[in-house]
UniProtKB/TrEMBL annotation:
One of its GO terms (molecular function) is transcription cis-regulatory region binding. InterPro entries: HTH_LacI (IPR000843), LacI/GalR-like_sensor (IPR046335), Lambda_DNA-bd_dom_sf (IPR010982), Peripla_BP_I (IPR028082). Keywords: DNA-binding, Transcription, Transcription regulation. The keyword Transcription applies. Residues 12-66 form the HTH lacI-type domain. This is LacI family transcriptional regulator.
Amino acid sequence: MPTPRRAPLKRVTLEEVARAAGVSRATASRVVNGVTTVDEAIRSAVQRAIADTGYVPNPAARSLVTRRAEAVALVLPERARLPGDPFLGRLLRGTSRVTGDHGVHLVLMTMDANTRDQVAADLHRGRLDGVILVHPGERDPLPRRLVESRFPVVLSARPAEPLAVTHVEADQRAGAALAADHLRSLRRRRIVTITGPLHTAVGHDRLAGFRDTLADPDLAWVEGDFSRESGAVGMTHLVEAHPDLDAVFAASDLMAQGALSVLRARGRAVPADVAVVGFDDSGVALACDPPLTTVREPVEEMAAELARLLLHHIDHPDSPPARTLFTPTLVHRHSA
């Protein structure tokens, strides 16, 4: 016996939404397309009607009305840093939560030789509405190129050069100062540090805040790249050059994890022989043995603010650049 064919599901129209809300089709359309001048009571009525009827906007039709792609790019640092980096996972969760709530697609890109031209081309051709740049390098021309072309762009850190651009950052110097004050309070006498990449504002500021707070002209340091491997290499160098060291500040949790592995292999007990402090308060901090004392920056909250600011600039292209500063805190665990 043949199986009876099911009637196709009927697509709810905008006219049905308008009737359910008791408004005109034009008003319902303005709400669907995110026009901000609609009265709040009317907006609420239309949104209830959308929920009640199960209306799903037609992306192609909406794009024709708004002249937008309903897509933004999240441009991440070079591919070499991606594997195992918890910071980037937290960043993605924060940004995608906001863009998803607004019906905007988040396009992930990683910086390489072709990315800059690709981003600019996608913006010019209307395939992207805006861009979030994550920790661009000090000499990266892309931030200035996008700002001068008047494209919506926000940065996840202070620009390395003077540039009128919206950015969100944690107070990196203050965070590193917390680490320095804590190690000093433990009466550690030979303190060293593994820095982040100094061609970035983040790496530079964490070193500056730590060094200025210690006020130690003989502070020993080596440069890392925020990875676990660079932490291990840096710790090996510091232990060999300064065998009397009794404290280390690693400018990322991953580097601190690498440093801990070296100290353990050389029979240096943590924190009895060497106190260790990291930076980020990622999941890595809890996975360390012992659990890592670290500086926490609220990455998910910062990422959500990046997305909100970008969407605001897309809606209001003439709005002035803004800066949002988050305050780090010290999380006490067993490594220091």
